[in-house]
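Pipeline run #58 for the internal structure catalog. This entry was flagged by the ingest filter as a single-chain record with no existing model, so it goes straight to prediction. Upstream metadata was stripped on purpose; only the residue string is passed forward. Reviewer on rotation: M.T. Logging verbosity set to normal.
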Amino acid sequence: MIEAWRTSPKVIELLRRVQDTQVFLRMAALELRRIAEQTPDVAVEARLIAQKLEAEAEDLARRDAE
């Protein structure tokens, strides 16, 4: 009974969206790092934003695992 909520269509959709968000955040972080390599004048800020995006993705992953 405790696991029944995991099979709810709304919960399944929410979990899928969280996973999609994690993928998006990681892809955005990779792209920012690529931009940072090509454009030195924005490199520091782009890398900082990339780190924040990855941290957010990891936070979502931890919450999803709970």
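catalog note: The mean pLDDT is 87.
catalog note: The CA atoms of residues 23 and 57 lie 8 Å apart.
status: ready for reviewer M.T.
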